């Protein structure tokens, strides 16, 4: 399972680190010895601690996700697409020894074809963003925490909202780590499923003020947009792929 965590982190961490960038993960729930299965609600609860000396700033993004027996979880969204179960913490500063706890409620878990028995559920996390890109964490072994849990395939009835299907998929959803700094909007997105993407700035009346196209290389998008010519106030930065909006962020433009 740790090989998966290391490979995911390697997507965004290259080169040697000068700062002590390090986060650690604690799985709070489910607890060891508890039972989960179809129709058995549970909470995936974990804590991310900044164990290093470099802050996780509001412009950085913590990606956290559960794994079972080393594989990611998937579910079906409203469009009928199979997507990986992963979550983000953004817009939050985590200073040295600071902690952020997040909990996600699940209606149940259905592992296709799995018999009753113990499974390893793990909480995992890594950080992307301007203060963590091109940096290797001082310790990557603490990016995961696991508990042995009993899986009961006869736990209850599986409904549409709780049909979480296990799959051995080694990908994560599109992640938008873009941020504004001064008069520049830095565009950063990962796992972009297309060769091009566009960024539009929309005012609060719904009017599109500016649109810029970008080339995507190796599923990564990086670019910059000047905010100097945008009107002062709040605008929305809308990232679109193949004509579909995939992320929206609020940007405050100051003159």
Notes on the protein architecture:
- The chain has one helix at residues 2-10; strands at residues 23-29, 35-36, 42-50, 61-68, 71-76, 82-84, 87-90, 99-106, 117-128, 144-151, 165-166, 175-176, 179-181, 184-190, 196-202, 208-215, 220-226, 233-241, 244-253.
- Strand 18 and strand 19 form a beta hairpin.
- Residues 1-17 and 158-172 have low confidence and may be disordered.
- Strands 2, 4, 5, 6, 7, 9, 10 and 11 form an eight-stranded mixed beta sheet that branches. Strands 12, 13, 14 and 17 form a four-stranded antiparallel beta sheet that branches. Strands 16-15-18-19 form a four-stranded antiparallel beta sheet, with no helix packed on it.
- It is mostly beta strands and 255 residues long.
- Helices cover 4% and strands 48% of the residues.
- The chain folds into two domains: 2-166, Immunoglobulins (Immunoglobulin-like), CATH 2.60.40; 175-253, Immunoglobulin-like, CATH 2.60.40.
